[in-house]
Amino acid sequence: MTQDYPSLQGLVCPLPLTHNDTIVLGHGSGGKLMHDLISRHFLPHFNNPILMKGDDAGLLQFAFDGQKSLRLSFTTDSHVVAPLFFSGGDIGRLAVCGTVNDISMLGAQPLYLTAGFILEEGLEIALLERVLTSMEIAATEAGVQIVAGDTKVVQKGKADQLYINTSGIGVLYPDVNISGSNAQPEDIVILSGTIGEHGIAVLEARGELGFSSGVKSDVAPLNRIIADLLNSDCRVHVLRDPTRGGLATTLNEIAQQSDICIFLDENSIPITPEVRAACELLGFDPLFIANEGKMVVIVHPDDTQKTLEIMYANPYSENAKIVGRVQTKPERRVLMRTVIGTTRVVEILSGELLPRIC
Amino acid sequence: MTQDYPSLQGLVCPLPLTHNDTIVLGHGSGGKLMHDLISRHFLPHFNNPILMKGDDAGLLQFAFDGQKSLRLSFTTDSHVVAPLFFSGGDIGRLAVCGTVNDISMLGAQPLYLTAGFILEEGLEIALLERVLTSMEIAATEAGVQIVAGDTKVVQKGKADQLYINTSGIGVLYPDVNISGSNAQPEDIVILSGTIGEHGIAVLEARGELGFSSGVKSDVAPLNRIIADLLNSDCRVHVLRDPTRGGLATTLNEIAQQSDICIFLDENSIPITPEVRAACELLGFDPLFIANEGKMVVIVHPDDTQKTLEIMYANPYSENAKIVGRVQTKPERRVLMRTVIGTTRVVEILSGELLPRIC
Q1: Could you tell me if B142 and B210 lie in one domain?
Q2: Residues B340, B197 share a domain
Q3: Is the pLDDT of residue B180 over 50?
Q4: A264 and A284, same structural domain?
Q5: Are residues A140 and A284 in the same domain?
Q6: Spatial separation of the C-alpha atoms in residues B194 and B48, rounded to whole Å
Q7: Whether residue A195 sits in one domain with residue A169
Q8: How many domains would you assign to chain A?
Q9: Which of A24-33, A297-306, B75-84 has the least mean pLDDT?
Q10: In whole angstroms, what is the distance from residue B251 CA to residue B70 CA?
Q11: Closest-CA distance of chain A to residue B226, Å
Q12: Which of these three, A144, A176, A208, is where a domain ends?
């Protein structure tokens, strides 16, 4: 997911933080506050070139016989979604798919996961069983194995039923070079499908929507689409999944990492009528709503059609659309031609929109 | 740590569990209840040969050119210790050392960690800074890099200040074959130092001791001792760190995995007077108390002296002692010659001794 210490070095933080401050929910939003917390407090302690690259996963190289090397994608995600079950998914499916997708976004085939559970005293084991069953189904679908685990229990009132950390390893496809810093001017920006479903589905499961939207979370493993893309000769430059912070935040991260401008066409961004209606009612911008089964593919312009055809053939990206293009200026910005024909700046998420969405 | 899905297939569970049951603190103890939870509910869903091996980490093999292969050790641990700071350490040092040690116990050099944080709303950032500083120091000491991270925030009352998951990867030393299932009859059982410090130090930090024991946690990275051992020609068969569940539980796991008997000599088990006094006062058996900087080394009898000399040269194992030997029968048992000359069975930890010790 895009929240994993993305391109942080250059992000401007308008909110001064001092050591007298405390953690607020916005620090988990995926937006400005989180980027600032990470760049001010985490990165100075964990400073190394792999982490500072700012992608969804760390790229590890293991030299072999002085000639070839094995390249691995290594990532982690803790999952604290509330409630545990929502239309279209649950914390178990989310925990497997989130890490599978983060591994994949570096151009890797996910292979092995670990699972760390924090259980609250009093949790029904039948409920845990449902979550584990869901994890098993998602792992089978994605083709990954859970090879190590850990279980901790905390007293009642010290967790919220259960939290799951999944970490994972994948092997990079041969000769690929995928990174948020690889977007090139003239590249085409493709979105794999409609946005906003996951956030709205979780909100509805909390009873905060006030009506039945019929929206289901899109939580899904994207690794098979990526396998098809990277086994083709399409020149894919960037892959990233717009999770916490939504499409707007993800595209801003890429624009910053690649030092380019992404120019979006609002008309072409696919949004279902149900998500649009829910967002209008709640005053949310769907560009900031989390997705868990969507990705941005930035590709060489000559390979656009072929990329789309590969994506159309996969159920999880059959509604893929061109939503924008890359241009040189203004650097480190996302602009959008709106439906009424004006151009506006699309900012990174500021503050907190929906806590505990993943 | 020994709690990571150890040798579970053969453990007898005297406590019938049904789906009407709920999680209790004992499910996180490292003992019988946890083994039962894992074998009944986790393993059926995550059944694969790597996980079922039952070691502290999963052993991954990446074939290369059809001839050679890269062998990696991959593990995870969530840390929920309360309080966050205790004499001799804190949750940050624990999170780094715990995973470094788990990777190492497979005979691997730990290289890369991920860190996933669950932060409680209202947590002081100054406190977070202290923990991050401690993680940095421990990572530097162990020689590992933190290459990916994740930060989640939950509402006040949904966590206890902060929880940290660390997952990690290491590369196996050439030609080693270390596993809890490799103990051989006649092998010698070496313990790297005194037991019980970590558990007593955490208990004292909670104010539950009622007096000042002066005991400091032993939390430390053990990878450099293991590097020295495995770069020598000592025939090391088993490495394992006696964390949750203590030495008794760890040795029982090994006895079960290797289908042998471990025969201990109580007189030779090193325990400081301070830990002994605290245990006597509280009615605890130090054999069940968690350690975070100790390990069991089971070695070919002809290499005992050389192994001890290597261990004496390292500050974290300078008090290493021979504590027992491996024999064929009774299989899957740990026996102990007591200080008064009788022989007793040493059981795996049953129920809960100290919750949230790591």
Answers
A1: no
A2: yes
A3: yes
A4: yes
A5: no
A6: 36
A7: no
A8: 2
A9: A24-33
A10: 30
A11: 21
A12: A176
CA distances to A163, B95, B194, B344 from A160, rounded to whole Å, are: 7, 22, 37, 42
Q: Do B122 and A22 touch (CB under 8 A)?
A: yes
Structure confidence at residue B71 (pLDDT) = 95
pLDDT band at A20 (very low <50, low <70, confident <90, very high): low
Considering the domain boundaries, does residue B132 fall inside one? yes
Q: A153 with A220, same domain?
A: no
B161 contact partners, CB below 8 Å, separation of at least 6: B84, B120, B123, B127
Q: For A302-339, how does the pLDDT look when each residue is reduced to its tens digit (9 = 90+)? A: 999 999 999 999 999 999 999 999 999 999 999 999 99
Mean pLDDT for chain A overall:
92
CB pairs under 8 A between A and B: 289
Most B CBs within 10 A among A78, A93, A113, hence the mutation to make, goes to A78
Q: Do the Cβ atoms of A132 and B3 come within 8 Å?
A: no
- Chain B partners within 8 Å of A154 (Cβ): 28, 80, 160, 355-356
Position B298, amino acid: I
Q: Span A218-232, mean pLDDT?
A: 98
| CATH number reported for the structural domain that contains residue B194 in this entry | 3.90.650.10
A337 and A223 assigned to the same domain: yes
| Domain annotation covers residue B10 | no
C-alpha distances in Å from residue B227, one per residue of B101, B173, B176, B231, B232: 12, 8, 11, 6, 9
A353 located within any domain: no
Using a CB-CB distance cutoff of 8 angstroms, which residues of chain A are in contact with residue B125?
17, 19-23, 37, 41
Q: Which residue of A has its CA nearest to B56?
A: A148
Record the tokens describing residue A41, joined without a space: 């407090």
Q: CB-CB: which of A79, A133, A147 is closest to B45?
A: A133
Among B41, B115, B150, select the one facing A3 at the smallest CB separation.
B150
Global pTM value: 0.93
| Nearest neighbour of A60 by CB, restricted to B45, B112, B150 | B112
Region A52-64: mean pLDDT is 88
Kindly state whether residue A221 falls inside one of the protein's structural domains. Answer: yes
Nearest CA in chain B to A24: B121
Q: How much is the average pLDDT of B152-157? A: 96
Given a cut of 70, whether residue B15 has pLDDT beyond it is no
Cβ contacts of B154 on chain A, cutoff 8 Å: 28, 80, 160, 355-356
Boundaries of domain holding A265: 188-345
Whether A139 and B46 lie within 8 Å, measured CB to CB? yes
Nearest to B41 among A5, A125, A154 (CB): A125
Q: Which amino acid is at B244?
A: R
- Which spans in B143-184 are helix H? none
DSSP A9-32: TT----S---TT-B--GGGGSSSH
Assess whether pLDDT exceeds 70 at residue A181. Answer: yes
- CA-nearest residue to B71 within chain A is A62
In the predicted structure, residue A354 carries a pLDDT above the cut 50: yes
Phi and psi, residue A178, nearest 5°:
-110, 130
pLDDT of the residue at B56: 82
Residues of B in contact with A46 (CB under 8 A): 115, 132, 135-136, 139, 145-146, 149
Residue A270 to residues A342, B66, B153, Cα–Cα distance (Å) = 19, 46, 30
CATH number of the domain bearing residue B114 = 3.30.1330.10
Residues B112 and B255 in one domain: no
ipTM: 0.93
User: pLDDT for B68-105, tens place per residue?
Assistant: 789 999 999 999 999 999 999 999 999 999 999 999 99
Answer with the one of B153, B176, B199 that is the final residue of a domain: B176
3 state DSSP class of B56: coil
